[in-house]
Amino acid sequence: MVFYEEEEDFPDHMLMSMKQFKIPNKKLNSIIQSQAVMGGGSSVFSFEIDGLMKACEARMVSRMSDMIKDLESRILEKVDQNDQNTELRITSFNSKYVGVVKELTNVQMKGHTLFVMDVKKVSDDVNLKLQELHDDMVREVGVVQNDCATLHKNVDIICDAVTKYVTLSESLSPQITQLSTTTNQKFGGGGGYLDAQRSKGVGAKSCYIFDNYSRVYLTKVYTV
Which superkingdom does the taxonomy of this entry point to (predicted)? Predict the structure, then answer.
């Protein structure tokens, strides 16, 4: 069994670790060759080979541990860098989002202010129109009330006149009856005397019993 010193094709990050085992390989080859020349096994050589193998294993474990740590460190750095980039993107997005929200809030506040102004203007116009309508209605109601008062006064006057007329008629009815009877007795009833006077060319005159207060003709009589 011989360990060759020629290098094999390993990746770049593994090549240096393999070079570290050249010296142990040379020692191992010399020990094996010496054992073959001497023609027999020796516990000393076996012990030395075991020590060299353990040393190689320890170096490989150490190197692999270093490689793993280096790989973990690189991964953590990459993750940290990605986290930083993500945090920067989040911060940038948050800044843009806050700016957009602030702008929208300002637009909404301006719109609300304009809306409130429009509502107030419409409310003022409506209140003005309602006040004008109320004033017009008050004036119209005042006119109607005045007309009603005047109408009531006229109705009261008419009622008083009718009442006085009825009262006067009732009080004059006996006198009119007596006057009619006297006239009939004087002129012979039927108006013969008046006819005789008319035949003589004497014109008959008419007169009325007039109520000065009610301005109503109560009756009509004939005189000569």
Answer: Eukaryota
